[in-house]
Amino acid sequence: MSAMDTGSTISSALALGDDPAEVAGRAAREVRGRLGGDADLVVMFASPVLCRDPGAILDAVHAELRPRRLVGCTGEAIIGTGREVEGDPALVVWAARLPGARITPVRTAAEADETGEATFPGWPFLPGVATGEGAQAPDADDAVILLADPFSFPVDRFLAAVADNVWRPPIVGGLASGGRAPGQHVLFLDRRWYDDGAVGVTVGGTDMVIAVSQGCAPIGPEMVVTDAEEGGLVYELAGRPAIAKLEEVIGGLEPPERKLALNGLLAGLVIDENRPEYVRGDFLVRGILGGDRETGALVVGERVRVGQTMRLHVRDADSADEDLRETLRGARAQLAGTPAGALVFTCNGRGTHMFPVPDHDASVLGEELGNAPAAGLFCNGEIGPVGGRTFAHGFTATMALFGATPQPDGTPAD
Question: Is residue 365 one of the residues assigned to a domain?
Answer without folding.
Answer: yes
